[in-house]
Amino acid sequence: MGCPPDSLEWWLLKSIWHAFTALDVDKSGKVSKSQLKVLSHNLCTVMKIPHDPVALEEHFKDDDEGPVSNQGYMPYLNKFILDKVQDNFDRQDFNKMCWTLCFRKNLGQSQLLISNDDAFKIWCIFNFLSEDRYPLIIVTEEIEYFLRKLTEAMGGSWVEERFEDYKLHLDSKQQCLNAWELISVVGAGHFSKGMDRQTLSMGINDVYQELILDVLKQGYMMKKGHKRKNWTERWFTLKPSSISYYVGEDLAEQKGIIILDGNCTVEPLPDKEGKKCLFLIRSSLKSFEISASDKKKKQEWIQAIQICVSLLRQGRPAPHREARQKRRELRLRQQAEQEELELRMRELQTANEAKQLELEKMRKALEESAANAAEEEKKRLQTQTELQDRYKMDLEREKLVRQQMEEQMAQKSTELEQYLQRVRELEDMYRQLEDALEDERRARQDEETVRKLQARLLEEEAMKRAELEQIHLRQQRAISETEAEKQELERERLAKESALQAAMKQLEHLEQERQGALEQYQTVMKKLEDAANNTKSWKHKVAEHEGLLRLIQPGSKGQKLITNWGPAAFSEAELSLREKKWQEMKNQAE
């Protein structure tokens, strides 16, 4: 159902919503037209609205469209019922009618500690504290407010831990309750342990009296009569704009009412006529002398009445209604702030994810570079190992050749000693020995060449190692620069945010200065326009009376001049000018 702007209509719609939902047996969101006719007739009867059966039949005439949804029922409800409603009906009867339609379907009393009347009062309190949206629910904050009120009314102490445990259980489900779940919570006695049923019922009634009937205070006091001046005990009930007094607390017979307004006053009186704890209520029509049972009750009643009068002067609602509105506004503000915070967190998370992707790309690039360098190093080491193995084999081969040559030389030497007498053979052997020595010299040269080649390879290996060290250092510097760039980007972002906030503040300050300068400029222009109009008017008058009147200009503070026109009629400059003209006229005449 929609949300009418009028508070009375909105309050009525909550109860009507319960009745409409109860008629929706199969929970399809629609109700048969015959049931809506009965509901509309009952609403008109209980709210004292003239019933128009023709309009009802015309609106819900039989056709092929079938049942009607709540959106389809709203046009008739607004036009023929809510637009005609006046605040002249019994709201409790209206609530009773809606309650009768819905409680049998939703409420099971087999395990509840409360009566049907107590459940009805909790249902009314739920409608008062529930959120202004459908389906109707009551949030955790309002549940705690109601249970605290109920505990105070029963004279018990609020156990914060018990409600916190229940709130954790509630948060794990849905964080709110509907009307029947709230009735079950109170009726099951979870928060009234140690209290009997009568105490629980009285506590529910006290909270109902305050929140629904706007009874801010009630109790027995003595009232002095206006005619017979006798003192009679009455049951007083204080509401935001009136004080009613009855014969008894059953409210069966009302004896009178005191209308409160902003001009009412309440003041204590001294004890007299055997009565104590007196105070006087002055209304616009009469004054009432009241006697409380003790000083505490007297002070409580005086303060309560003064609060009502103060609220009437300020045009504010009852305290519990104003507190409910403030709690709702606070929840809306917190919800908006939470949504804004979530939006900012999502933006920051998106930026962080983008940064993480960028860093991941850089990490992969560094890993690829390191892998390439390691592969190159592996290939170089493999090549170096192969060269070393080859040179080792060559050296072993050369060593073997040398050993063979040494054996040959030993054999030659032996032969030389044996065949010393044979000179020719010795010379031949000598030549062979020189050839062998020449071969050895060449072998030594080859060995030297191999050693030089090995030294050059070792030098190249050292150079390669130096290059690898430089590559490793460049990698370390690149990693350090990446971390530095990340920190620099973070500092730049913080600096830009600070600069942006400072610029916004400066812009707001400049805007305020511009507005002030514009207002000053408009004021000055207005003054200049007025001065120009006054000057123009004055010059016009002077032009019309030229020769008859002359403007009196400030003269010098010296000795006044005496002329034919009187004292100080001309200034010195004007007098000199007139003397020159007179002299010229005289010369021309001669």
Overview of the structural elements:
Mean pLDDT is 81; it is low at 1-6 and 547-553. With 590 residues, the protein is of the alpha+beta class. Helix content is 66%, strand content 9%. Helix 1 (7-23) runs parallel beside helix 5 (91-106), helix 6 (116-129) packs across helix 9 and helix 6 packs parallel to helix 10.
Break the fold down into its secondary structure elements and pairings.
Elements: H1 7-23, E1 30-31, H2 33-46, H3 53-59, E2 68-69, H4 70-81, H5 91-106, H6 116-129, E3 138-139, H7 140-153, H8 160-171, E4 176-177, H9 179-187, H10 197-211, E5 217-224, E6 231-239, E7 242-246, E8 254-259, E9 265-269, E10 278-282, E11 287-291, H11 295-314, H12 319-418, H13 423-544, E12 562-563, E13 566-567, H14 572-589
Antiparallel strand pairs: 1-2, 3-4, 5-6, 5-11, 6-7, 7-8, 9-10, 10-11, 12-13
Quick synopsis:
Helix content is 66%, strand content 9%.
* Averaged pLDDT: 81
- The global form is elongated
Looking across the biggest beta sheet, what order are the strands in?
8-7-6-5-11-10-9
Structure summary, number of beta strands: 13
Give me some keywords for this one.
7-stranded antiparallel beta sheet; coiled coil; 590 residues; PH-domain like; 13 strands; elongated; alpha+beta
